[in-house]
Design brief:
Structural class: alpha/beta
Bound molecules: flavin-adenine dinucleotide, iron/sulfur cluster
Largest sheet: 5 strands, parallel
Distance between the termini: 19 Å
Number of strands: 22
Strand content: 25-35%
Strand order of the largest sheet: 3-2-1-11-22
Radius of gyration: 23 Å
Amino acid sequence: MNIKKGEFVVVGGGISGIAAAVEIAEFGNKVTLIEKEASLGGRVSKMSLYFPKLCPPYCGLEIYFKRIRSNPNIQIMTLSEVANISGTPGNFTVTVRQSPRYVNAKCTGCNDCVSACPVERPSDFDYSLSKTKAVYLPHELSFPYRYVIDDKTCPGAECGKCILACKYDAIDLGMKAESVELKADAVIVATGWKPYDAQKLTNLNYGKMSNLITNVMMERLAAPNGPTKGEILRPSDNKKVERVAFVQCAGSRDENHLPYCSAVCCTASLKQVSYVKEFNKEAQVSVFYIDLRVMGRNEDFLTKIKQHDGLKFVKGKVARITEDPDTKDVWVEAEDILSGAKHRERFDMAVLATGIEPSLSGEKTCLGEQDKYGFFGSGKDGIFHIGCCHTPSDVSACVKLANGAVLKAMQCVGGRA
Ligand SMILES: Cc1cc2nc3c(=O)[nH]c(=O)nc-3n(C[C@H](O)[C@H](O)[C@H](O)COP(=O)(O)OP(=O)(O)OC[C@H]3O[C@@H](n4cnc5c(N)ncnc54)[C@H](O)[C@@H]3O)c2cc1C
Ligand code: SF4
Ligand code: SF4
């Protein structure tokens, strides 16, 4: 088949954007992958294991990174965002603003700068469950594998201790933001999702007690490269968890918050039940739910998880969560719809299954039209939206959407007839 080759821009370096960029490049096209953070991988890189197979997400990501490394058609721009898109299919101009990294390509990853740096900041990778220095490696499997300086916390040249510590002349505190113009036949947008802000769920009192965490934090607690090296310890006193509650639909399917189903959080909590049971097989776990929604072939996963001993499902929306001031235990209150009884139970720790919100919700963007929730519905002709910025989905659905968009994008080469 004779397919015309072109140039493309993919915005968002999570699993959706990576999948799209790799497929485009392997057809022989040029592609620039634009990522706003310092490393590729998006939310998936922060997961401990993937459902349904329960394998580490880096198995899949590493294969994609290898395909990127071996393909000269792909250019990566991290710390970058799109400022403007003009033109028509076959002839777009994309203006990209790249923030300074302050660490150049000479960085060998020796870590000497980190030992010298006096400034600490909360780690975004660990959802503030740990700290990094102002100069840091995004995480141990970061791609690109290069350190970065957080200019919101680093005082700059008045400190400069990292420069003295670096033997490779890799730190340049004078680096400036740059603006670059790229040509593109089509643009694929894959800007993903963010966890719903649990502090908006005022009846659940998130933020007012240490042992009430969110599902994304639970991924970090369970991860071998996380703040507790994979031990599920409750934040207040590092005690091994024995009684854990999962609170489903924390924000989702609620007219006052996210009126839609976030699609993945039931399966994600079932996966996290397996983290708890793997860590402490005597642990008692309760899942509070309205409906358990496991999509497609994940029904088998539900059946498998239900076989764990010490696992209870309570059908009822959680009305209140409070803290015992002496023990720091959490009390979860709900009405058990099946028995009609009020249910009040004490746990070491509770996990809110916070929903998926589009990452650009509430922000002005040139990347397309958003619906009232912030999801991209449609864009200009030649701009395609995939992954969780389009609809809440699991990884397998994201990759399928990416492949479809690649075919659509390649039809834009040379302009519409
Ligand atoms: C608790 C939890 C556990 C989960 N576990 C699983 C699981 O086990 N298996 C599974 O299949 N799915 C799981 N999921 C779903 C999975 O996280 C998503 O399917 C996946 O992250 C979607 O990838 P994405 O690339 O669309 O979005 P993201 O992962 O959000 O990636 C988007 C990327 O775009 C970047 N970006 C954002 N805005 C901009 C911008 N303006 N410019 C440039 N770049 C930008 C972001 O920094 C990010 O790198 C889970 C979800 C939750 C909530
Ligand atoms: S910036 Fe310099 S000191 Fe820091 S990790 Fe890189 S090479 Fe080492
Ligand atoms: S200049 Fe900034 S990054 Fe370097 S050591 Fe000082 S605070 Fe840390």
